[in-house]
Amino acid sequence: MTFPQFLADYWWLLFPLAWFVSMGWSSWMKYKRHQANLELLKSYAASGNEPPADLLKALKGDSLGEDSGMGTDENESWSGGSSAFLVILFLGLGAVFAYEGYSDMLGVGDAAYFVAMIMGVMALAFGAGGLFGRRG
Fold first, then answer.
1. 136 pLDDT exceeds 60?
2. What is the C-alpha to C-alpha distance for residues 102 and 132, in angstroms, rounded to an integer?
3. How many helices (H) and strands (E) are present in the chain, helices listed first?
4. How much of the chain is helix, strand and coil, in % rounded to 5?
5. Helices 53-63 and 14-47, packing angle to 10 deg
6. What is the pTM for the complete model shown?
7. Could you tell me which of 99, 89, 79, 97 has the C-alpha nearest to residue 123?
8. Which residues contact 33 (CB under 8 A, 6 or more apart)?
9. Alpha-carbon separation of residue 62 from 58, 89, 126 (angstroms)
10. Contacts 24+ apart (CB under 8 A), 22-30
11. What is the DSSP letter of 129?
12. Residues near 61 by Cβ (< 8 Å), separated by ≥ 6?
C-alpha cells in the first residue's frame, strides 16, 4: 500500500490525531503555566513577601487539574455548555457520516458508517461526562 493510498483509505484518522495533538499541547501549556507560577512563588518566598491570594489560588487550581482561576460559578456553567456543544458537534458529525454512508457521495462506502459510530460513541461519552462529571 502506497502512502497516498493509505491517506485515501484512512483519512478519517486525522480527526483523532488532531485531537491527541491538541490535548498534548494543552497539557504542555498547563505545565508551563504551573511552572511559571511556582517560579513566581519562589521569588516571593526569596524576597520575604507574602504571595497574593490569587497566585495561591491558581497554584491550588493547577494541582487539582483545573485551569488557573477556574472554579467560579460563571466558569462552572461554561463547562456544562462546553459538554453540550461537544455532544451536538459529535452528533452532527455522526449524522453527516451516516448520511455519506447511506448516499455514498464520496465513494467511501461502509467506512463512513464506522466513523459515524465512533462519532456517536464520542457524543455519548461527552453527554455522560456532562451529566455525571465532577461538579464544583
1. no
2. 34
3. 5, 0
4. 80, 0, 20
5. 140
6. 0.47
7. 89
8. 62, 68
9. 6, 28, 23
10. 30/62, 30/67
11. H
12. 67, 68, 69, 70, 71
Residue with cell string 494543552: 26
pLDDT of 15 strictly over 90 = no
Distance between CA 48 and CA 69 in Å, rounded?
Answer: 25
Q: Are 106 and 100 in contact (CB under 8 A)?
A: yes
Tell me which amino acid residue 131 is.
L
C-alpha span between 54 and 61 (Å, rounded)? 10
Q: Residues 83, 129: contact at Cβ < 8 Å?
A: yes
pLDDT at 57 over 70: yes
The count of other CB atoms within 10 Å of the CB of residue 116 is 20
Q: What are phi and psi of 134, to 5 degrees?
A: -65, 130
| Cell of residue 55, nine digits | 497566585
Of the candidates 107, 90, 75, the one whose C-alpha atom is nearest the C-alpha of residue 15 is: 90
Is residue 135 within 8 A of residue 83, CB to CB? The reply is no
Q: For 81-121, what is each residue's pLDDT tens digit?
A: 678 888 999 999 999 999 999 998 888 888 899 999 999 99
